[in-house]
Write a structure and sequence with these properties.
The complex is a heterodimer.
Chain A (H helix, E strand, L loop, with lengths): L4 E3 H4 L5 E4 L3 E5 L12 E6 L9 H10 L2 H10 L5 E5 L2 E8 L6 E5 L5 E5 L3 H4 L2 H6 L7 H20 L2 E2 L8 E3 L7 E3 L6 E2 L23 H16 L20 H10 L10 H18 L15 E3 L6 E3 L2
Helix pairs in contact in A: 3-6, 6-7, 6-9
Chain B lengths: L6 E10 L7 H19 L7 E8 L3 E8 L19 H21 L3 E2 L3 E6 L7 H12 L7 E6 L5 H5 L13 E4 L5 H22 L19 E4 L6
The chains are: A alpha+beta, B alpha/beta.
Protein name (chain A): Protein kinase domain-containing protein
InterPro entries (chain A): Kinase-like_dom_sf, Prot_kinase_dom
GO molecular function (chain A): ATP binding; protein kinase activity
C-alpha cells in the first residue's frame, strides 16, 4: 500500500512559482513523478499558520483507495491532492497534478500586455462580447451546455464517492472548449468526505451562499444550480444573479423545471448531478450527430513555467 | 427565488498632479488606470461589484474618469497632466459632491451601495490655507452619511503628520490605514507600489463583498510591496 505522505526532500528541487493565494504558494515540482499520477506535479506550500489540520490525509487516502478506473476519472475531473508533504514531522503542503495547458488562455490584456490566464468559470458569466473583447473565449450556447454537462459529471463522480465539494464558486472550476471533459474542479483541499468534518473549514464564497447553514451534497447541488444559471445566462450582474428566468432562453421546459428545483430552499427538491447529466446529455446528443466529428486530442504540450517577478509581482515566463 | 439587490462598491482614486509630480512620478500615476483595467479584465465578474472613478487635483480638482464600469469603457483612458499647486481643499470638495451624486444615482438605478473607498495619492504638502482644507475634509467625513473610507498615500515630500490626520475612520473596528514611501526609495517606484496596493484592495474588497461586510479590505502588512510601509493614525502624534 502506498503511503499518502512523503517528505519534502523526496519532492526534490522545486521549479518556478506558478501561483499564490491567501493561504498558499504553488510551485512546479519537476523532479518528482508518481506511479499513480499521469502528468507533471505541482507543490502547494501552505503559508505558516494555514496548514490544514489532519483530515487532509483522509482526502488523499480516499483517492489512493479508488480502483484504477475511478481514480483516473477523478484525476481528469479534479486537481486532487495526491500526496501530503511533510517537513520535520509537520504538514508543509501537498502535491497536486499540474492543470493541463488546455485550461489556460493566451490572451492580450486591454493595456496590450500578453498574459496567460487560467480559464476560471467566472469568464463564462460575463457578456460574451465583453469576454471576446478582453481576449477570452466567448462560448456558444451549445458549448455552454457541454460545460454544464461535464461539470454535472464531475459533481456526480464526487457525490457517488461520498464527497462534498463545499465551496463551488466562480474560481474553483476551470474550463476548456476543445476537448472533453471540459471542466476541472480545482482547490480540492477544501473537499470533505461525507460523514466527516472538513479538512479546511468549508465556506461559502460571496454570492454563492445556499439557503441552509450547513454545507452538504445538497448545498453542492444548489450551487451547481447557480453555476448553470450564470453560465447559461451570461451578462451584466449574472455573477450575482439567482433568478432562474435568466437561463430560460437556453433551456427547454424540462431544464427550466430542473433549474428552479435546484434553487429550491428545500434541499430535498433539488435534482441530483446525475439528473442534470441525463437531461444535458439528451440536449446535446441530437445536435452532435449532425456536427463534424470532434478534432483529435491536441498533441501533448509541455506547460511552460510561470513565476512572479519579485519586484513587479507580474507573472513572467520562467525560461 | 427572491430577487436580491446587487451591491456596488464605488472606488475613487485621487491623484496629485501638482508641479512637483512631473516626470517619472506622473508617468507612474498615468499607469494606474490601465493597470486597474487589466486587473479587472482578469477578474471580470468584479465589474458586477466595483465602479471606479479618477479625480486629479492641482490648483483645482477635476473628475478625469467619471465613476464607471471600466471594462465597459470603449474610449481611451484620460491622460493626467500637471496643473500647478496642491489644493487638498479642492480635491476634498469635489470628491464630496461626486460621492453624493454618484451614490444617489446608483441607488436610483436599483443598487445597494457600499461605503465608498478612496485612495488619496500625494507627493507634497497642501498649498491652500490649513483651515480651508481641514474644513473641507471635515465636511467630507463628519456629518456626511455616505462619508468614504479614506486611505491617504504619501510619496516623496508628503508630510506623514498631515496625511495621518486624513485616515478615516481613524479608529474602531473598521479603521483605515496610511501608506508611506519608505525613506530613500524612488518616488515613482513608490507610486507603482501604491497602485499595487490599491488594486489588491479593490480585488479583495470586491471579492469579499457580501451582506454585512464593510466592503473595504486593505492588504495585510506582510503582503505589502517593498518600499512601502503601512501606518495607523496613532503612529504619528
Amino acid at each position: 500500500m502506498r503511503s499518502h505522505t512523503i517528505g519534502l526532500h523526496e519532492v526534490g528541487p522545486l521549479g518556478g512559482q506558478i501561483g499564490a493565494g491567501g493561504q498558499a504558494k504553488v510551485f512546479l515540482a519537476p523532479a518528482i513523478t508518481l506511479d499513480d499520477v499521469a502528468g507533471p506535479l505541482v507543490y502547494k506550500q501552505y503559508k505558516p499558520g494555514h496548514e490544514p489540520p489532519h483530515g487532509l490525509s483522509a482526502v488523499v487516502a480516499r483517492r489512493l483507495r479508488m480502483d484504477v478506473m475511478t481514480r483516473s476519472r477523478l484525476d481528469r475531473l479534479a486537481a486532487w491532492p495526491v500526496r501530503i508533504v511533510e517537513q520535520g514531522g509537520a504538514v508543509s503542503g501537498v502535491l497536486m497534478p499540474l492543470i493541463p495547458s488546455g485550461f489556460f488562455e493566451n490572451r492580450v490584456l486591454p493595456s496590450g500586455q500578453p498574459k496567460r490566464t487560467l480559464r476560471e468559470v467566472q469568464h463564462l458569466f460575463i457578456d460574451p462580447g465583453r469576454a471576446a473583447r478582453l481576449g477570452m473565449p466567448a462560448p456558444t450556447d451549445a458549448e455552454r451546455l457541454t460545460v454544464c454537462r461535464d461539470f454535472a459529471a464531475a459533481l456526480h463522480l464526487l457525490h457517488r464517492n461520498e464527497l462534498v465539494i463545499g465551496d463551488i464558486n466562480a474560481k474553483n472550476a476551470v474550463f476548456r472548449l476543445d476537448a472533453r471533459p471540459c471542466v476541472v474542479i480545482v482547490d480540492c483541499d477544501a473537499i470533505r468526505i461525507k460523514g466527516a468534518a472538513a479538512v479546511v473549514r468549508q465556506l461559502n464564497a460571496p454570492d454563492w451562499e445556499p439557503p441552509e447553514d450547513t454545507l452538504s451534497q445538497a448545498t453542492d447541488l444548489y450551487k451547481f444550480g447557480l453555476f448553470v444559471l450564470r453560465c447559461l445566462g451570461p451578462g451584466p450582474m449574472a455573477s450575482v444573479s439567482r433568478d432562474p428566468a435568466r437561463a430560460d432562453a437556453v433551456l427547454a421546459p424540462e431544464g427550466r423545471k430542473l433549474l428552479r428545483a435546484s434553487l429550491s430552499r428545500r434541499p430535498a427538491d433539488r435534482p441530483t448531478a446525475q439528473d442534470w447529466g441525463r437531461y444535458l446529455d439528451g440536449l446535446l446528443i441530437a445536435p452532435r450527430r449532425q456536427s463534424t466529428p470532434p478534432p483529435p486530442p491536441p498533441a501533448a504540450t509541455s506547460t511552460p513555467g510561470w513565476k512572479r517577478d519579485p519586484r513587479t509581482k507580474r507573472w513572467v515566463q520562467a525560461t | 427565488m427572491e430577487s436580491e439587490k446587487a451591491k456596488i462598491l464605488p472606488f475613487y482614486v485621487l491623484i496629485d498632479v501638482s508641479a512637483s509630480m512631473s516626470g517619472d512620478k506622473l508617468d507612474q500615476a498615468n499607469r494606474i488606470m490601465p493597470q486597474v483595467v487589466d486587473a479587472l479584465a482578469e477578474a471580470p465578474i468584479l465589474a458586477d461589484k466595483v465602479r471606479f472613478c479618477v479625480i486629479d487635483f492641482g490648483s483645482d480638482a477635476q473628475v478625469r474618469l467619471p465613476l464607471c464600469d471600466v471594462l465597459d469603457q470603449h474610449s481611451s483612458l484620460p491622460s493626467l497632466t500637471i496643473r500647478g499647486a496642491t489644493s487638498y481643499a479642492a480635491a476634498f470638495r469635489l470628491l464630496r459632491s461626486e460621492i453624493e451624486v454618484n451614490v444617489k444615482q446608483l441607488k436610483a438605478d436599483g443598487y445597494l451601495v457600499h461605503r465608498p473607498a478612496v485612495f488619496f495619492i500625494s507627493d507634497g504638502e497642501p498649498t491652500d490655507p490649513e483651515h480651508e482644507w481641514r474644513t473641507a475634509f471635515q465636511d467630507l467625513t463628519a456629518g456626511f452619511p455616505t462619508y468614504p473610507n479614506f486611505v491617504p498615500c504619501g510619496v516623496d515630500s508628503a508630510n506623514p503628520r498631515t496625511l495621518a490626520t486624513l485616515i478615516h475612520p481613524a479608529s474602531g473596528p473598521k479603521q483605515m490605514q496610511m501608506y508611506l514611501m519608505e525613506k530613500g526609495q524612488n518616488p515613482a517606484d513608490a507610486i507603482a507600489a501604491i497602485a499595487e496596493i490599491l488594486i489588491s484592495s479593490m480585488l479583495a474588497s470586491g471579492q469579499s463583498m457580501a451582506q454585512g461586510s464593510s466592503g473595504m479590505i486593505l492588504p495585510a502588512k506582510q503582503d505589502l510591496p517593498a518600499g512601502i510601509s503601512a501606518h495607523s493614525s496613532d503612529d504619528f502624534v
